[in-house]
User: Fold ATP synthase complex subunit 8 from Tipula melanomera gracilispina.
Amino acid sequence: MPQMAPINWLFLFIIFSCTLIIFNTLNYFFYLPMTPKSLQLKQNKFLPLNWKW
Assistant:
């Protein structure tokens, strides 16, 4: 079974590292947290259940 040369391991490590960094930065900057306005809209739609015993 052939072995990989050290330059191939370095190239593979660089490719995986760049992929990881790009993936994490895209996830970080595309994350949209819920704004307080949208939270208030959700709370207004909620109808409380009044139990009549």
The mean pLDDT is 80.
